[in-house]
Amino acid sequence: MTSTLAPDVDSSESSMQSGMSGAAQVTQNSAAVTTLVPAYYSTLTGYASIEATLKSVVSDAQIWPDSLCGPYTTGVPGLFISFNSTFQAAAANLTTQVNTLNTDPTNAAAMSALSSQLQTLLDELQTLQAPMTTLQTQLVDYQKTLQNDWDELEAAIDSLSASASEAVATVTASVNVTYQMLGPCAAIVSMSSTTEASIKQATDAKQSEAVPIALEQALLSTMLSQNENATTAMSTILGQWAALIDKYEAVIDDLESAQSASSSILAELDIQTAETAWAQLASYAKTLSS
């Protein structure tokens, strides 16, 4: 059974999982860019313009852990955890009013109390929605920043000699990084032996300038994809949240415009089903945030 007062559990859990997974992968690639690339700045002697480009990309990669990761990884599960607390606190009163109206559909006091309680819940939904909508705008802007970085990096590679460009391509193809998460917004990174061998090959061939460029190109490419995934998941969550707000508004309008609470309106509310759904979503959200 479903209730107008709760989102679909399966789709909401799927969206949460996608979002948190995407965020973790952005964290990993951000950590890789900011820790691996600077170690090779010294190889860029004579490439001041390219070095400046790489440093700009590293700076932009740091935006994720500094400004976006925390709000994302606490905000996504926090939506469901916070609203569950609000709903559970209201459930007994909602049930009382619905039971009264099932017996006496024209009870004006019960209709008013039910509508008022639903309005309080609606207000909370909208309050929780606002910062996440702001965060989504920031994520979209960040995707544009990363794409601009990618374009600038590509232009830098195009300015290299044919042999240096070939070395960049060789190292880029070998990049393989492993991660150990230290929390939702921090990770330890290390390069595979294959990547290290490719770097040594470029260094031995006197093309060490290719190393930081190749590392950044490979890692930024992945970071672009993963940030897009996290942004898409946030968009889906906000879409589900907006649809829920619409349902609350519709049922409040129905109650306030009706002379009596019809059985169909009361059946749609199904407080017990909504209680269970919100509790399940909050429990799942806590596993993602722990």
Chain-wise SSE layout:
Blueprint: H1 9-36, H2 48-61, H3 63-103, H4 108-158, H5 162-174, E1 177-183, E2 186-191, H6 193-204, H7 210-257, H8 263-269, H9 271-289
Antiparallel strand pairs: 1-2
Helix pairs in contact: 1-2, 1-3, 1-7, 1-9, 2-4, 2-7, 3-4, 3-9, 4-7, 5-6, 5-7
Walkthrough of the structure:
- The chain is mostly helical and 290 residues long.
- Helices cover 80% and strands 4% of the residues.
- It has helices spanning 9-36, 48-61, 63-103, 108-158, 162-174, 193-204, 210-257, 263-269, 271-289, and strands at residues 177-183, 186-191.
- It has a two-stranded antiparallel sheet with strand order 1-2.
- Strand 1 (177-183) and strand 2 (186-191) form a beta hairpin.
- Helix 3 (63-103) runs antiparallel to helix 9 and helix 4 (108-158) runs antiparallel to helix 7 (210-257).
Q: Which descriptors apply to this entry?
A:
mainly alpha, 290 residues, elongated, two-stranded antiparallel sheet, 2 strands, 80% helix
Poorly predicted sequence stretches spanning 5 or more consecutive residues: none
Rg from alpha-carbon coordinates: 26 Å
Taken as a percent bin, the fraction of beta residues is under 5%
User: Helical element count?
Assistant: 9
Shape: elongated
Helix content: over 70%
Order of helices and strands: HHHHHEEHHHH
Structural class designation? mainly alpha
Largest sheet: 2 strands, antiparallel
- The largest sheet has its strands arranged as 1-2
What is the average of the pLDDT values? 93
Number of DSSP strands?
2
Task: Report, as a whole number of angstroms, the end-to-end distance.
Answer: 29 Å
